[in-house]
Amino acid sequence: MEIQTALRQFCDYSTFIRGFSPATISRYKSAIRLFASDVGIDTMEQVTEGAFRDFMLRGRTVRHWTANSYVTYHKSFAVFFRWCITEGYMEENPADGMEMPKTDRKLPPKLTRQEATRILETASNMPYPYKFLRWRNHAIFATFLYAGLRKQEVLSLMLTDMDLQNRTIFIRRGKGAKDRIVPMCGSLMESLERYLVERKRLKKTCPEFFTSLNRNVGFTDTGMKRLVEKMNAASGIKFSAHKLRHSFATMMLEGGCDIYSLSRMMGHSDIKTTTIYLAATAEHLRDQIGKHPMDELAGRKKPGSHNAL
C-alpha cells in the first residue's frame, strides 16, 4: 500500500467519520509527508521501527523540535499508524513504547483588559470605506473576546447558530466533533445586532454568519488572517486569534466564573485542560487576597506594635 494512498484514506475517514477539523487534518498530512520524504519511502511496507525512531530523533537534533513539538508529532503518527493496523496495512505500531521528553506546561499568552478593550475600540474606530466592515470586524473580535470561540469555530458559524432571542451560540462539531452551546453577554449581543443590521442591508443570503464584503459567501480563513494582521498593526498590540480565546478564559476566571462552567464554554473534553488558566490568574488572585477582611483589620497595626503584656 502506497503511503500517500493510505494517508488520503485516513484523512477521509478522520474528516467524515471522526469529524476532525481541517487544521487537525492538515497537521496529519504535513507530518506523514515529512516522514515519507525524510526517510525516502513510498509504501507502508517500508515503514520500520528503526526508520521511524531515527526520524523522530532527527526532529530533535537536526530540526530542533521543542519537547512539545516532539510529543505533538508523535501523537499524530501514533494515531495514523494505529488506523493503518486496523486497516491491515501494518502489523505493529512503531510509535508504541517510545519514551517522551518532559514538556513545559507554559502559561497561555493573554491580553490585559486594557489591551482587549483597545482592540475592540480600534475595530470600531478605524477608517473603513463601508459601514459593513466596521461592524462585521467588531463583531468578529467581540465573538472571540466575549465567547472564547476558536478561530475555526468563528468561521464555521451559521446564521441559524446565533439565537439572539435566547442569547446563545450553537457550536456545531467543534474540536473533537462535539457540539456545545455558549451563552452571549450583553456586550456581544449589541455588537452582533449592529452587524446583522448591515448584513441585512447588503442583502447577504449565504448561510454563514460572518460574510465577505464583495461576495455572498462566508468569511474565509485567509480573510481572518489578514484581518488579525491588520488589527495588530492598527492597535499596536501583538496578538493571534487563539490569544483572544486565552484572554477570554483568564478574564472569566478573574471575574469569578467557576472552572467547571468555563470548561463547558471553552469546549474542553477534560477539565484538566482548563485548569492551566488558573495559574495564569495568579497575579490577579494575589491582588484579590488583599481584600481579606481580617487582613484589612490587621493592617491597621504595624508588625511589632503590640503592647507588651
UniProtKB/TrEMBL annotation:
Keywords: DNA recombination, DNA-binding. The keyword DNA-binding applies. It holds the Pfam family Phage_integrase. Gene3D superfamilies: 1.10.150.130, Intergrase catalytic core (1.10.443.10). One of its GO terms (biological process) is DNA recombination. Residues 106-290 form the Tyr recombinase domain. One of its GO terms (molecular function) is DNA binding. InterPro entries: CB, DNA_brk_join_enz, Integrase-like_cat_sf, Integrase_catalytic, Integrase_recombinase_N, Tyrosine_recombinase_XerCD. Residues 1-85 form the Core-binding (CB) domain. Belongs to the 'phage' integrase family. This is Tyr recombinase domain-containing protein. It comes from Candidatus Uhrbacteria bacterium RIFOXYB2_FULL_57_15.
